UniProtKB/TrEMBL annotation:
One of its GO terms (molecular function) is dipeptidase activity. InterPro entries: Amidohydrolase, Aminobenzoyl-glu_utiliz_pB, Bact_exopeptidase_dim_dom, Peptidase_M20, Peptidase_M20/M20A_hydrolases, Peptidase_M20_dimer. It comes from the Bacteria. GO terms for biological process: folic acid catabolic process. Keywords: Hydrolase, Signal. This is Aminobenzoyl-glutamate utilization protein B. Residues 1-19 form the signal peptide. One of its GO terms (cellular component) is cytoplasm. Pfam families: M20_dimer (PF07687), Peptidase_M20 (PF01546). Residues 202-292 form the Peptidase M20 dimerisation domain. Transmembrane segments: none annotated.
Length: 474
């Protein structure tokens, strides 16, 4: 055989048959397919641990593509793990899909609920789940075409919004052999820095008193509502005497049934956040003392239930630089004329002083490294203290949009959301491909994780030993 032909055959046998360009083209060709999945979940918003249809749709999509799907993991009906391949490295991609209560909204640039007081995807988890599934299937196809060794998993993680689904999945040992975990989140900009979040403990405080006629026999009553109000007053006084980075907020979920009946039961739902999980625990202990004092002062009985507790995100610069490079390769979101008009109308609804431009959706935020927690909290934080973790944000919303708003729901239900979702899917895909091609990255990422969390670190879930609160949204 001609020696040049032999050389060509050898080169061909060791060259990728299915490379980056082909992978991205295939993702583009299926953008509408994955966009339809996201819209189905958007149109049927389901709250934490109740995401039966959303979870089933993502599971079916993965199963049809060739993944082995295990449902109902960690004693959570809507949690699942989809797996392809075997051996090392093990790369996981997390997928969320729960909605938020009270933010129902049509895909229009003005306030118009679909159902008054209904749920809505104001944090974009319909896009989160669909993009993660898209990335998983894309990477799996690439692995098959190129005979890539290793294990790929997509983790279906319910109830991120205050339910802490990932905490219970981690506690069940579902990530103990993972080398790298990836995630993303909808947002109003494109960013893939090594940044953090706020640790958080959320709790329901319940007070039990004695009912009585509020006019005829008020002296016989012991008001549980008085206890709630007394506790909340003391919590508000605490704000002056906690670290300035602290965030404390609450709602009264039960306050009584009628003004002329002294409330025998009342409940308030509290969050306490800080960039450091240890500080959160200290402030929470003080919050419990206010509840005990309120019960003592009103002659009521108090019980509390920790609903959720999550660590702050632990950044991993090793992985974040790879993801940032891939985000720059993919680029941001470019609007059509119709999308630009939609964005301009959304921007008009912002409070005075919020500066943004539709063009910002096309920009990539400069790379940064910071352990200062900002914004909200996420149960990804617990994962990041156990496994090297990396994530990105993509502009699925109009620049300047805040999470948990009707504006986020509106953009997430139309083409702007889909475009941002595909930016995330492509970036996740390329990052997973890079790590599979160079598994030595996982060693460096683990070394960084060990350095950041410290030699003496021992993981203890902030939720204690409780089971997942499957009824917290009921």
């Amino acid at each position: 055989m001609n020696k040049y032909l032999i050389l060509l055959l050898l080169l061909f046998s060791f060259s990728p048959l299915f490379g980056q360009d082909e992978v991205l083209k295939k993702l583009d060709s299926k953008a509408d397919f994955y966009g339809d999945i996201a819209r189905q979940i958007w149109a049927n918003p389901e709250l934490g641990y109740l995401e039966t249809k959303s979870s089933a749709l993502l599971q079916k999509t993965l199963k049809d593509a060739g993944f082995k799907v295990t449902a109902g993991v960690a004693e959570i009906p809507t949690a699942f793990v989809a797996e392809y391949g075997s051996g090392k490295p093990v790369i996981g991609i997390m997928a969320e899909f729960d909605a938020l209560p009270g933010v129902s909204q049509e895909a229009v640039p003005f306030r118009k609920p679909v159902v008054e007081g209904g749920a809505g995807h104001a944090c974009g988890h319909h896009l989160f789940g669909a993009a993660s599934v898209a990335a998983g299937i894309s990477v799996m196809d690439w692995m098959k075409e190129n005979n890539i060794k290793g294990t790929l998993r997509v983790y279906g993680t319910p109830a991120e919004e205050g339910g802490g689904g990932k905490v219970y999945m981690a506690r069940a040992g579902l990530i103990k052999d993972v080398d790298v975990m990836m995630h993303w989140h909808p947002g109003s900009q494109n960013a893939a820095g090594a940044t953090s979040s706020l640790a958080n403990i959320s709790t329901k405080f319940r007070f039990y008193g004695e009912a009585s006629h509020a006019a005829a026999a008020p002296e016989r009553g012991k008001s549980a509502l008085d206890a709630v109000e007394a506790m909340n007053f003391m919590v508000n006084l605490m704000r002056e005497h906690v670290p300035m980075e602290t965030r404390m907020h609450y709602v009264i979920t039960r306050g009584g049934e009628a003004p002329n009946v002294v409330p025998a039961f009342a409940e308030s739902y509290h969050y306490v956040r800080h960039p450091n999980a240890l500080v959160v625990q200290e402030i929470f202990a003080r919050m419990v003392k206010t509840a005990e004092g309120a019960a003592l002062g009103t002659q009521t009985r108090m019980e509390y239930e920790v609903i959720n507790g999550v660590y702050n995100l632990l950044p991993n610069e090793t992985l974040a630089r790879i993801m940032h490079k891939n985000l720059e390769t993919i680029g941001g979101v470019n609007y059509s004329p119709e999308e630009r008009k939609f964005a301009e109308d959304i921007i008009k609804t912002y409070p005075a002083g919020v500066k943004s431009s539709p063009e910002d959706a096309a920009k990539i935020t400069p790379f940064i490294v910071s352990e200062e927690g900002g914004g909200g909290s996420t149960d990804v934080g617990d994962i990041s203290w156990l496994v090297p973790t990396v994530g990105l944000g993509a502009a699925t919303w109009v620049p300047g949009t805040s999470a948990h708003t009707w504006q986020a729901v509106a953009a997430g239900g139309m083409s702007i959301g889909q475009k941002g979702m595909m930016v995330a899917a492509k970036t996740l895909t390329l990052t997973a491909m890079d790590i599979f091609k160079d598994p030595s990255v996982t060693v460096k990422a683990l070394e960084e994780l060990n350095r950041r969390r410290g030699a003496d670190f021992e993981y203890k879930a902030l939720v204690g030993d409780r089971k997942a609160p499957l009824d917290y949204r009921k």
